[in-house]
Specification:
This protein has helices spanning 16-26, 56-64, 83-90, 101-110, 124-134, 139-147, 149-154, 168-183, and strands at 5-9, 30-32, 35-37, 51-53, 68-74, 77-82, 94-98, 115-120, 161-164. It is of the alpha/beta class and 187 residues long. The structure holds adenosine-5'-diphosphate and guanosine-5'-monophosphate.
């Protein structure tokens, strides 16, 4: 069995974070990667838990030293996957990345064995409800995030798997099944 690098992507508010958190709680062999970002922490977010919150200058110098497996700039902030952090974890565990579509496709370029899973909502209306319910962004920011939905979903066909997050428990089980199947494939 191999350790797999799994990428979870999908529109903001679809439930990636919720799925990832529960997967890690239920499976001691799966470890969650922590991305770096230049955005400010939201209420309740802790540095080194949800993200490594770093200054733009530090982020740019990490780009210079090839310190990211991939990075992107969206919603006016930088987000990136720290290379050493992930590759070190992968020696012992499966590693889960929760990143946007372009990030996922870039990871696949630099690490072709990565398994890309797109999480989709049961409907756009439901997605909007979840974003509003989460109550972490202003209406303007929610609108900005909604504009990206079609773009994210269009790229689903480039991903290895698509999982609809309607019933949360079922979606988690589906992701678990994919990971177990992939662990048994020799590359
Ligand atoms: P993302 O990480 O993709 O931006 P979150 O995990 O923060 O999304 O989920 C957004 C909101 O939707 C949260 O309030 C979460 O509790 C809720 N949520 C997640 N999955 C489901 C589901 N299957 N059914 C209903 N609500 C859900
Ligand atoms: P948020 O600000 O809501 O936490 O995240 C905004 C977006 O950034 C989400 O689509 C999330 O998946 C993406 N993101 C988080 N970390 C990374 C990363 O390391 N790289 C890339 N490319 N995107 C990321």
């Amino acid at each position: 069995m191999r350790n797999v690098l799994v990428v979870l992507s999908g529109p903001s508010g679809v439930g990636k974070g919720t799925i990832a958190k529960q997967l890690v709680e239920r499976n001691k062999d799966i470890s969650l990667s922590i991305s770096c970002t230049t955005r400010k922490p939201r209420d309740g977010e802790v540095d080194g838990r949800e993200y490594f919150f770093i200054e733009k200058e530090k982020f740019l110098s990490k780009i210079e030293t090839d310190g990211f497996l991939e990075f992107s700039n969206h919603f006016e902030n930088y987000y990136g996957t720290p290379k050493d952090f992930v590759l070190d974890k992968l020696v012992k565990n499966d590693v889960l990345l929760e990143i946007d579509v372009n990030g996922g496709l870039n990871v696949k370029k630099s690490y072709p064995d990565a398994v890309l899973i797109m999480i989709t909502p049961p409907s756009i209306e439901e997605l909007e409800k979840r974003l509003i319910k989460r109550n972490t962004e202003s209406i303007e920011k929610i609108k900005l995030r909604m504009q990206r939905i079609d773009y994210e979903l269009e790229k689903s066909n480039l991903y290895d798997y698509t999982v609809v997050n309607d019933d949360l428990g079922k979606a988690i089980e589906e992701v678990e099944q994919i990971i177990n199947k992939e662990k048994n494939i020799d590359n």
